[in-house]
Amino acid sequence: MEQQRQTSVVRFGTYEVDLRAGELWKAGIRIKVQQQPLKLLEILLEHPGEMVTREELRSRIWPEESFGDFDQAVNVAVAKLRGALGDSADNPRYIETLPRRGYRFVAPVASPSSDSRSDGETIGPLPPETQPHAKKWRRLAVAGLLVAVVGLGSIYVVQRNSSRAADNRSRIMVAVLPFENLSNDPEQEYFSDGLTEEMITELGRLNPEQLGVIARVSAMQYKHASKSVAQIGKELGAAYVVEGSVRRSDKRVRVAVQLIRTHDQAHVWADSYEREMRDVLGLQRDLCEDVAREIRVKLARSRGPAPQSASPEAHEDYLKGRFFFSKRNSNENALRYFQQAIEKDPNYPLPYTGLSDLYQLSDDPQLARESVQKALELDDQLAEAHNSLAALLYRFDGDWAGAEREFQRALQLDPNYASAHHWYSMYLGLRGRKAQALAEAQKAYELDPLSPVVGANLAKILQEAGQDDKAIEQAKKTLDLDPDSAVTHAVLGVIYQDKRMYPEAIAEYKAAVQLGGPPGEMRGLLGYAYAASGNRVEAEKIVGELKLLWPGHAHAALDLAAVFSGLGDKEKALYWLEKADERHVSDLIEIEQDADFAELRSDPRFRVLVQRVGAPK
Length: 617
Fold this sequence. Notes:
Elements: H1 2-5, E1 9-12, E2 15-18, E3 23-26, E4 29-31, H2 35-46, E5 51-53, H3 54-61, H4 67-85, E6 95-98, E7 102-105, H5 132-140, E8 153-159, E9 172-177, E10 180-181, H6 189-204, E11 211-214, H7 216-220, H8 229-236, E12 238-249, E13 252-261, E14 266-276, H9 280-294, H10 312-327, H11 331-344, H12 350-361, H13 365-378, H14 383-396, H15 400-413, H16 418-430, H17 434-447, H18 452-464, H19 468-481, H20 486-498, H21 502-514, H22 519-532, H23 536-549, H24 556-566, H25 570-582, H26 604-613
Parallel strand pairs: 9-11, 10-12
Antiparallel strand pairs: 1-2, 2-3, 3-4, 5-7, 6-7, 8-9, 8-12, 12-13, 13-14
Helix pairs in contact: 2-4, 6-9, 6-10, 10-11, 10-12, 11-12, 12-13, 12-14, 13-14, 14-15, 14-16, 15-16, 16-17, 16-18, 17-18, 18-19, 18-20, 19-20, 20-21, 21-22, 22-23, 22-24, 23-24, 24-25, 25-26
């Protein structure tokens, strides 16, 4: 990339990097970035579209670090850089993680200097999505899609390997990957992503005994992936792929799709659809039926009614809300759009499910309950609503029987709903039904194999089932896919702690804290590990940090109780457990089985608290 080295400014998207001054700018505003993350960005920009190995990063940025310290340092630097760029490991626009190998800058890179053309022609090696062979595919394919699967609207038909359970051998799995936005308007990205999510839901309503649907989180991993159809087919066990694109103009929308067999990349089928915006839901149903027919799945009657019609404006706001909600760092925008959708069409149920999900994230069970009940009043066939209600019933009401009925109802309505299998597995684990919990966690992982949360949960359920070695293997496999997953580092720490491998557990907890895990929960885990390993000084430092979070962060009370329990101070541990109960911290339902409180179980006050919060025995 010799031309870039001759100029001091490199541009990508709305960002500029002044290499000489060591500064990052966005739309004329300087973005504060620490030295190591900025140096990492400069190295990636030297090789756009190419892999930069972790070994190269180490030699240029961290030559003096040990391997363990380096791994943690590079993970933190990448996380901070993504934060500065508004990027995501799940849906990367700029920095793609290549598990175990390195990273790749996937956006086009240009320079505003005299070396570059005025039209922003890319300098240096082109990213994979702009290579000439990809453009050729655009011209040839009816759907106008890239073989490299960059920003594609795709439907992956996955048929599991023989190693899968026998009851899935006759079941074809489908993964819907992001529809490519061809509208020449980046702000329409929410619409193509929203249509992808709607397609996942619609396909899940078809014959679930014969057709399974990969969850959205795993599908979105390939939004900017520069991989061939054959590669993706191998990674997901995909027998077929359907690629698609969306072009929106004024009040009309055009969707093009094509079915591709992965092992030989043969084109099996292609078609296009054009509708008025008000008939987008009808377009989705037509797509689902045609795709299923072409993959020779004999469709049974759809489970549940067709989606309820909504005004085009309300549906569009709902899609925007889901787009921002999926980012997990734009909850205010998501809330605004869900509320706008409800204002425009109060009888449209889907925005209420969006609100319920948001309120659960913010630990507000009352508002979450009101929202989910409204959704069920409007449409009691929504699996999402029954799943959300199930979680509310056992975590906040102690209604374990009612929660199980709701989980089973959700899975009856949509057996392909990965989140229902995931949440149900956690419920079963708390009830001590370990074999069932593991089966549900494995089903969730089969449907959503690239989700770090689902993968981490499977590792945790394996650990609870006494399979520590398999749990470690699963956690590391999940981290290979997403090294920046704080929850997976935390789960791996829990497994190490269970094996009394305290130095390893502490290292994982530290990584979880630095990667932005929940501030109280991560510090609580770290503080207990320090205490259990005999390091009282560091444990007491964590106590001080947790007290600064209280009372604004209610969960800090439960985390303080855990650390004091590890320090052997029963009185203070019980004091903070009572404070957590006063603030209705939902995780109190887990204290009976939590090994951190093993020394308190014989205390009558602890037994009373267990009964009061409705924790299972």
